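Support case: user asked for a sample of complex input and structure output to validate their parser. Sending the pair below.
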Amino acid sequence: MNIFRFAGDMMHLLSVVVLLLKIHKMKSCAGISLKTQELYALVFICRYLDIFTGFISLYNTIMKIVFLASAFSILWYMRSHKVVRQTYDKDQDTFRHYFLILACMVLALLVHHKFTFREVMWTFSIYLEAVAILPQLVMLQRTRNIDNLTGNYVFFLGTYRGLYMLNWVYRYLTEVHYHHRWLTWISGFIQTALYADFFYYYVKSWRNNEKLQLPA
Amino acid sequence: DEIEDSHDEL
């Protein structure tokens, strides 16, 4: 495992920790899109179908369990915790995420490397992950006061996939059997590009020492 | 299987 991949995974982990910290300590999920969180839970379920059958490394298995467990605990907090769920801003979270699921499923059935159940589900998870942040980005744009933890959460999440792209370049250059990943690369590039606008305003607000606010 | 075994990333 190269440093880009590891740093990417750590950023991903950090984003989840930041979000859970906000929810658990502040007992608030204000500004967080439940729809994006539902999409991530679905992404992890479909991608980690092999969690108990295909062993890669202890690191991989543990990380998969951590991502699945954290995704479901976030969902539980936002939907069922008696204090946290009242801070969820349902009216601002209006993205039609079922259309994303449908579109990604159709695309996965049409464009994949291999037509097997596991491979199509894996491909679906790659497509869905690329666009899962959209409800959250829309919600951020509507939120007047984005708190630091929410801003950092999205920033770490974007950095994670950016680092994965460096990892793919590195692996492409250093590994012999690493040439049929174009599907992941295109999706990963789109996923990272979606954050470009957010990154711009995040860095700008950080440099000017101002509160983060996205233009409507 | 080369493709399925290649899913070694998270």
